[in-house]
C-alpha cells in the first residue's frame, strides 16, 4: 500500500458528518446484546424497575411501598392492594477507541480520515440517544481522551476533538504505546457498562491477541472490532502509479511507516496472489479470535459508503438499531 505524500484532512465538522446524514442518524441508537444498569435516566431499558411511562406488571403491595403506585381500580374490583411496576430506562456507556498510529495515516481513501468520520457518526448516534459517549485515541506518544459526555450539544465538542486533537502519528516514530499497553489502560479506566467499539486496521507488530484479551476481560461491555483497511491493502493490484498508470509490480523499495525498516523486493503476480491470501488469512484469524471471546469483528473497506454502512450494514450486524 502506498502512503500518499499529501492528504487533505477534514477541517470542519460537516466534513466529518454532513447535516443530511446527521438528520438520518437521529432515529438510530447503539444496540446492546445485554441489558445494562446505567447511571442516569436515558433511553435504554434497565434491569431495575421504577417509574417510567412503560408499564410492565403488577405485584402485591407490602408495607413500606409507595402508595402513589397503587392501582385503585384493581382494589375496587378485588379488594386487594397491588402496585404498578414500570420499566425504568437508563443510559449506557458508548466507548469508542480510535487507532491513530502511523499505519492508519495511509491508503486511498485514507484510513484515519475514514475512521474519524466513523467515530463522529457513531458518537453522534450515542449522544442523541442520551447515552454517555467517550473516546480514547491511541497510537501516538500518549493516549488522548474525549471525556464522557451526553446530549446532542456535546456533538460539537466531539467534532472539535476529532478535528483539532486527533492527528496522525509521525512516520517512523516508533514512540507510541503498544496496542497491549493502550488496551490495558482502556480496560482499567473504563466507566460503567455498555458498548466498546475499537476502530483500527489491527496491523500491529506485536499482534492483536494480547490487547484484545484485555478488552475481552473488561466485563460489562459488548466489544466490537471494526477493522478498517484500504482497497490497496486488500488488493494491491488495484493501486495504480499516478505518473505511469502501472500497478505495484517490478523491483520496489518498501519502507515500514512505523519503524522505518526498508526492504527491497521484486513484486510479481505470484507474490501478489500469495499476499492477498495472507491478508485474507489474517482477517479470518482476527474474526475467529474475536468470536472465541464473544467480541464482534467487522471488516470495512475505506471506500465504503458511510451512510450505507451505518444505516444498513451495521444495523444488520446488530451494532445499531
Description:
By secondary structure, the protein is α/β, with parallel strands linked by helices. The chain folds into two domains: 13-35 and 93-317, von Willebrand factor, type A domain (Rossmann fold), CATH 3.40.50; 41-90, no CATH class. It is 33% helix and 26% strand. The strands form three sheets. A six-stranded mixed beta sheet has the order 5-4-3-6-7-10, with helices on both faces. Strands 1-2 form a two-stranded antiparallel sheet. The model is unreliable at 36-53 (pLDDT under 50).
Set out the fold topology.
Blueprint: H1 13-16, H2 19-25, E1 41-60, H3 72-78, E2 82-90, E3 93-99, H4 111-128, E4 132-138, E5 144-149, H5 154-165, H6 179-189, E6 194-200, H7 209-216, E7 221-229, H8 231-234, E8 250-255, E9 262-267, H9 269-292, E10 296-301, H10 306-317
Parallel strand pairs: 3-4, 3-6, 6-7, 7-10
Antiparallel strand pairs: 1-2, 4-5, 8-9
Helix pairs in contact: 4-5, 6-7
Helix-and-strand structural type: alpha/beta
- Uncertain residue ranges: 36-53
CATH class of the largest domain: Alpha Beta
Strand order of the largest sheet: 5-4-3-6-7-10
Residue fraction in strands: 25-35%
Helix content: 25-40%
Query: What is the H/E order?
Result: HHEHEEHEEHHEHEHEEHEH
Radius of gyration, taken over Cα atoms and rounded to an integer in Å: 24 Å
How far apart the termini lie comes to 35 Å
Task: For the structure shown, list the relevant keywords.
321 residues; alpha/beta; Rossmann fold; 2 domains; two-stranded antiparallel ribbon; 10 helices; 10 strands; 26% strand
Amino acid at each position: 500500500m502506498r502512503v500518499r505524500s499529501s492528504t487533505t484532512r477534514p477541517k470542519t465538522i460537516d466534513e466529518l458528518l454532513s447535516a443530511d446524514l446527521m438528520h438520518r442518524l437521529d432515529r438510530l441508537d447503539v444496540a446492546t446484546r445485554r441489558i445494562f444498569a446505567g447511571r442516569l435516566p436515558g433511553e435504554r431499558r434497565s434491569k431495575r424497575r421504577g417509574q417510567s411511562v412503560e408499564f410492565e406488571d403488577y405485584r402485591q403491595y407490602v408495607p413500606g411501598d409507595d402508595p402513589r403506585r397503587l392501582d385503585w381500580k384493581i382494589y375496587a374490583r378485588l379488594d386487594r392492594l397491588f402496585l404498578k411496576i414500570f420499566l425504568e430506562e437508563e443510559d449506557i456507556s458508548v466507548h469508542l477507541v480510535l487507532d491513530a498510529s502511523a499505519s492508519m495515516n495511509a491508503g486511498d481513501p485514507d484510513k484515519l480520515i475514514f475512521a474519524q468520520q466513523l467515530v463522529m457518526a457513531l458518537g453522534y448516534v450515542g449522544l442523541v440517544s442520551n447515552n454517555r459517549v467517550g473516546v480514547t485515541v491511541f497510537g501516538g506518544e500518549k493516549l488522548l481522551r474525549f471525556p464522557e459526555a451526553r446530549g446532542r450539544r456535546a456533538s460539537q465538542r466531539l467534532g472539535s476533538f476529532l478535528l483539532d486533537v486527533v492527528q496522525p502519528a509521525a512516520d517512523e516514530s516508533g514512540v507510541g504505546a503498544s496496542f497491549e499497553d493502550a488496551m490495558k489502560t482502556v480496560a482499567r479506566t473504563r466507566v460503567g457498562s455498555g458498548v466498546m467499539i475499537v476502530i483500527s486496521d489491527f496491523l500491529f507488530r506485536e499482534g492483536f491477541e494480547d490487547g484484545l484479551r484485555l478488552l475481552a476481560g473488561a466485563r460489562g461491555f459488548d466489544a466490537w472490532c471494526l477493522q478498517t483497511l484500504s482497497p490497496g491493502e486488500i488488493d494491491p493490484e488495484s493501486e495504480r502509479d499516478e505518473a505511469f498508470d502501472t500497478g505495484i509490480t517490478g523491483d520496489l523499495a518498501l519502507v515500514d511507516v512505523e519503524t522505518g525498516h526498508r526492504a527491497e523486493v521484486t513484486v510479481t503476480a505470484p507474490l501478489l496472489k500469495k499476499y492477498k491470501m495472507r491478508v485474507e488469512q489474517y482477517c479470518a484469524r482476527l474474526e475467529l479470535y474475536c468470536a472465541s471471546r464473544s467480541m464482534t469483528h467487522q471488516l470495512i473497506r475505506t471506500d465504503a459508503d458511510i451512510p450505507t454502512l451505518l444505516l444498513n450494514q451495521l444495523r444488520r450486524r446488530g451494532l445499531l438499531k
